[in-house]
Amino acid sequence: MRYLLLLAFTACAASARMSSMPMAAAPAATPQPPPLTQSLFSKDPNGKLSEEDLQRIIASPIELDLPARVGVMAIGTDIDWRGPAPDRRVPAGLEPLVERLRKDASFSLVTETMVIPSGALGMEALRENAARYRLRYLILYREAVAKHQSLGPWAWGYVTGIGALFLPGHEHEVYGYMEASMFDVKTGLLMFTTRRAVTASETTNSWHTDAKLDRLAANTLAKYAPELAGEVLADLRRFAAAAQQETDKRVAAIAR
């Protein structure tokens, strides 16, 4: 009997010691990196991103601040080192693209900006230009279209002289692409690029063929610009869905 009492007393004492010991602290959750608050890219046009900054950009959560002010900036083709002349024609697809984007609730304001020569300015200069408009995002718009004309079967009628007045002996063709890239002015990051192929052809008589070819190119770009805008908006929603999915993944990781 005395032996049993001794065992009971020993067990109670051990239990009391264990209950009085502090509980082991749960492992601390891995701190999540904050969103980027500024650009980490070099002001040097050639750019020089350190490995640390590169990894920081990739690891940072995506921030999408909508609705927001957005500018559509046309990227013109260089004529020479001075860039496009002041009276250079504005890209044909720019206006219908802007009109379509203005109908969407994702943007509180959509404005056109000055046409920028391709390659003439670095990305930091684009940010400074956007800041003058107080824009949160930029859509960098670019057109690249080739033009071709040749003589078709009806051109044989031109030997009569009269046939050149009305026979559709000239075949015109335009082909290329138009693209729009979403640019985050706050961080200097490109969010996505949407590109669309364009092509069109027609036959005409031999009068003012160059002007007709230019008009065909302009009409084709204006025709497809609203469709490009719709694809940009679709890509923006895909980007937002991907950002939300990554955020949910981070939250779930912290909760575990």
Mean pLDDT: 78
Just name the CATH architecture. 2-Layer Sandwich
Summed up, the helix count is 5
Helix content: 25-40%
- Basic shape: elongated
Q: Beta-strand level of the residues, as a percent range?
A: 15-25%
Oligomer: single chain
Walk me through what this model shows:
The chain has a single domain, classed as Lipoprotein like domain (Double Stranded RNA Binding Domain, 2-Layer Sandwich). It has 256 residues and is an alpha/beta fold. Strands 1, 2, 3, 4, 5 and 6 form a six-stranded mixed sheet that branches. It has five helices and six strands; from the N terminus they run H-H-E-H-E-E-H-E-E-E-H. The longest helix has 47 residues, at 209-255. The protein is elongated, with a radius of gyration of 32 Å. Helices cover 36% and strands 25% of the residues. Mean pLDDT is 78; it is low at 1-27 and 153-157.
Fold topology:
Layout: H1 2-20, H2 51-59, E1 68-76, H3 94-101, E2 107-112, E3 116-117, H4 123-132, E4 137-151, E5 170-184, E6 189-204, H5 209-255
Parallel strand pairs: 1-2, 1-3, 1-4
Antiparallel strand pairs: 4-5, 5-6
Helix pairs in contact: 3-5
